[in-house]
Amino acid sequence: MNISLENIDKLNGVITVVIEPADYEKAYADQLKDLRKKAHEPGFRPGMVPVGLLKKKYGKGIMADVVNEVLQEKLFAYIRENKVNMLGEPLPMPQDSISLEEGDSFTFKFELALAPEFKAELDSTDTLPFYEVEVSDEMIQRQVEMYQQRGGSYQKVLNYQDNDMLKGTLTELDEDGNDKSEGIVNEEAVMLPKYLKNEEQKALFNDAKPQEAIVFNPAKAYEDNEAGMASLLNVKKEEVSDHQGDFRFDVKEITRFMPGPLDKNLFDEVYPGADINTPEEFTAKVKETIQNQFNKDAEYKFLLDLRNYISNKVGKLEFPDGKLKRIMTANAKGDAQKVEENYDKSIEELKWHLIKEQLVEQTGVKVDDNDVLEMARETTRMQFAQYGMLNIPNEYLEDSVKEMLKKRETVDNLIDRCIEMKLASALKDIVTLEQKTVSAEEFNKMFD
Description:
about 450 residues; four-stranded antiparallel sheet; Trigger factor, domain 2; 14 helices; alpha+beta
């Protein structure tokens, strides 16, 4: 077999593959021999079909499969061994139809999109910011209260405070303040005065008590919130305009949500196995958890800053745009419009991929199966945490991870994330870090 690469220019190349009979004859003969063992042809016993007949009926198809297999194997072996830095897949060049006759040589040509040549290196002369996020007492307290909400319950109280829920009977009144004949009466009315828009109407419920009657005007209280008023009156939305007068709310019950206690049950639920016994220890653990998450976010922010910094340092790269678009269109099942719309973003990602390859080589970063497995676990924990499931059983976590790792695309994404995280960690020891302490609010604004 003869394979050669011709560089048309810095970004374009043509690779020529000549397949000789010696490259495919044995594989072709073996395929025919295997077919002869299994072939069933009229007039012949199994295994006794003449090879000539099999060649006549199936030879072209077998030859095509064998030649294509040899072509693919040798082509990509050459590209790997010669470290041809190409982008995407080789594009077959148009050529005359090949007869695929036994004993012939076959020539194939492929267009290559070559990666631009550049150098991406970092050292101590490169300065990048690294942020440490302050965890405020207010933030810790909010998180503690959120955990307490999970163990809280509604309890009856004797006077209304903001956020309380009122239950009672709602009765429509006439102009004289009497119960309106055939007016609305809702014996199961529920109100949350905190959400009334009109401050004067809301104030009428201040310090309300069970068995007390409060006269107010729902139309004024809810202003333009027809849906809220319709829900209270238990009527259709289009009917609320017929009820613009006063109503009396006879309070039957006031309930208030009481947060759960800061006790051992809560500590063990949030942090099982951590042996937390006091509110002070629990608060310290909450702070540690928040700080650890911000530390991870700071690493991610460093990676974003690093990417932006070195992309600017490398500068604009030239790419074989026309050829790349053809490759991308083939991968996108012919959707040229989609390729065109996303091309600039694709080039941005491609540039970062090429830079990243050089930085990985500079730092010697490697990723193994354990790294991917731990990244899958961390990703799964974060997904469950979004739904409030902070401490899922280990066996359930592992089952979810196994399902995640069955998908090739997911595994590739996990590998890429592992590489980026390890790369960021390694480069922190190479560049000069400009340490900056910021509040959580300042830090979060950086991601807007």
